Amino acid sequence: MGMTMTQKILAAHAGLDKVEAGQLISAKLDIVLGNDITTPVAVNEFKKAGFDCVFDKDRVAIVLDHFVPNKDIKAAEQSKTCREFACAHCVSHFYDVGKMGIEHALLPEQGVVTAGDCIIGADSHTCTYGALGAFSTGVGSTDMAAGMATGMAWFKVPSAIKFNLTGKLPSNCSGKDVILTIIGMIGVDGALYKSMEFVGDGAHGLSMDDRLCICNMAIEAGAKNGIFPVDDVTIEYLNGRSERAPVVYEADADAEYEKVIDIDLGAIVPTVACPHLPENTHPASELHHIKVDQVVIGS
């Protein structure tokens, strides 16, 4: 059997000709990400382990995302820890007040991540960058600390679910409706530690914003990562943006998937996730009677 797109990327970064689902590997990292919540914990672990330098000052990204401008002393202390670490180790991709933003939108926009990368981030939604044709996944702060010091991480190679997308999204729908529909179908553990691989003619018709949103929420189905093939839409987005040359990996024709799920994008409707789980999805048309008195952006 051949390899999926995710498995191809992991094999290349592990220096292996082939990997199989369930195999334990040690892989080289292209980018290690942390934010203002998780980086201070990682910095403490970094120091506790006796590390004295990062593996590459250009391959570590720290984004002050959640609590800047600071709302209180604790938030200010977290930012200070990040700032001092970034300064001490000359971290080139440090995004402070005035440059920071939502980390998972910022890194693709700034060209920090690109196709073919192997990326870890101390944030569960690091799976976002699969939209660019990269393997990216969330880890804990201890793994971030080790990654910053060694440029390596170990993984269990995930099995994969293929989502064959056909048709075209209605004009009033977006990638958010697609991924919520899928999570409603398979549940919050429907892709537990698996790779969600989105393919088909319908996938090529999705915008980069749609793809970023879909991959961002792969974790809400329990997935290890989400990923799209690199096509003309990807290349157009990366051209003039990526600071490193993209590397394109393609799934083998005989790649093994745990299951194949067909999704007709033309049948997608505006969809809402109701409390208290992302799998509790309903068409927006069924919820018109519910008064919205509070909107929260975030977790």
Q: Keyphrases for this structure?
A:
299 residues; Aconitase, domain 3; 9 helices; 13 strands; 20% strand; globular
How would you concisely characterize the structure shown here?
29% of the residues lie in helices and 20% in strands. It has 299 residues and is α/β, with parallel strands linked by helices.
Please state the CA-atom Rg, rounded to the nearest Å: 19 Å
Shape: globular
Please estimate the helix content.
25-40%
CATH topology: Aconitase, domain 3
Strand order in space, largest sheet: 4-3-2-5-6
Number of domains: 1
Strand content: 15-25%
What is the fourth-level CATH superfamily?
Aconitase, domain 3
Low-pLDDT runs: none
Q: H/E series, N to C?
A: HEEHEHEHEEHEEHEHHEHEEE
Distance between the termini: 39 Å
Description:
- The protein is an alpha/beta fold and 299 residues long.
- It has a single domain (5-287), classed as Aconitase, domain 3, CATH 3.30.499.
- Helix content is 29%, strand content 20%.
- It contains nine helices and 13 strands.
- The chain has helices spanning 5-14, 38-48, 73-88, 103-110, 141-150, 175-186, 201-204, 208-216, 232-238; strands at residues 24-28, 31-35, 60-63, 93-95, 118-121, 135-138, 152-156, 159-166, 194-199, 225-227, 259-264, 271-273, 281-283.
- Strands 4-3-2-5-6 form a five-stranded parallel beta sheet. Strands 10-9-8-11 form a four-stranded parallel beta sheet, with helices on both faces. A two-stranded antiparallel sheet has the order 1-7.
- It starts with a helix and ends in a 16-residue tail after the last strand.
